[in-house]
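[User] I wish I could look at a protein chain and see how it folds. I have put the entry right below:
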Amino acid sequence: MRNVIYERALNASADGFLIVGRDGKIIEINKAYCDYFGINRQETIGKHIYSVISNSKMIRIMDENLTEVDVMHTFPDGLTASGEKLVAVTRMPVILMDETIASVAYVKFSHYTISLAKTLQKLEDEIAYYRKRLSRYAICSFEDLPSASPQFAAVVRMAQRFADSDLPILLLGETGVGKEVFANAIHQASNRHNHPFVCVNCASIPEELLESELFGYVDGAFTGSRRMGKKGKFELADGGTLMLDEIGEMPTKMQSKLLRVLQNQEVEKLGAEKPIQVNVRIIAATNQDLSHCVKSKTFRLDLYYRLNVLPITIPPLRERLEDIPNLVEAILAELIDKYGRKVTLSEKAMVLLLGYAWPGNVRELRNAIGRGFMMTEGSEIQPEHLPGSLKEKKALMFDPEDRTAGNGATPERDREQIVSCIQKQNGNFAKAARALGIHRATLYARMHALGIPIEQFRPAAR
């Protein structure tokens, strides 16, 4: 009875099974393995392994007491009935009272298994590749947000102070200034960094779906819902940080429900009978003036007070133009790494960037550099490769063709005049620009064009 059960189980397997004795003869081979080679099971049992599989490693397994798990083995041409040669095999010796008496092999040779193994290997390679890429670009700390702008540096220091608090943070700033980057940096610097950082854009989700997206739902909550229900963003962010981007666009009906969650730290899923506890730190972000929204009755006053505990205003790019060269360098490094093509930015193109008002901020700068990278056929981005909007007079803060300080001055005299003026103003660029009668952006552009490093006037440099 036992032998019958053993034989039935062995031959029911879709994978191969093989036992070879110490003398090298086949003790057992199952039907699937025989079908794979196109041989008869009864005629094969008792034959020497090399007469069936010429490059078998079963004897070596016994001689060296080796164990191999899921290694790839390639059969010689013409050996298999299907023509398939590659298999994944696990081999091990059978040891009885310190004596090796046989070797056993379990073979995965189906097309499905091999295809799956190849797919998994491909996915593992892709994961390793993207993990390497992300480790370079992911914001892990505020050290990844260096700035030559005193204004921006002051904002970073404020955010660092706020990071460890569990109080809500309200990020204010124009579209494209990098509010999500800031929120991520705050999370990574907080004591919640080992827990999830979840971001939801309140403006991109239809009003009728926003509640289920934030709070989740249970099985059967509404027609078309998932059978097992769904976790909401609050539940997904439990223990970590939830960023509510574009909070000013949240419908007023949802604002009252959000207020209850913030007050009680409880979330009630759609269709659920009782709420669940959550522990979430809120970072809200908006490009709107929420106080004005309160006056116009589009934003609840009590929710505004709940969120506006630790406000941080991120300055627009036009107010920190000294950061543009470093930002351009970082953006180009990403593009070079992605496309494998070495491209730099010309001096004239940099002057154009430094004179633009950047209504779209860092996001617009990234898009402009990306366009220039793709448009140039050479190794240098020129002004003609950049978006036409950068050259429109109404969008410029100064005329990029105006390369002198006036009165026919030479570049050498320009350089001397600018350096002397900045030194007299103790490194204050705003005062120096006013003394020269030009916009601060013009001053930065001329300094860059004339090769005058901004850093030499910083306190650390002096």
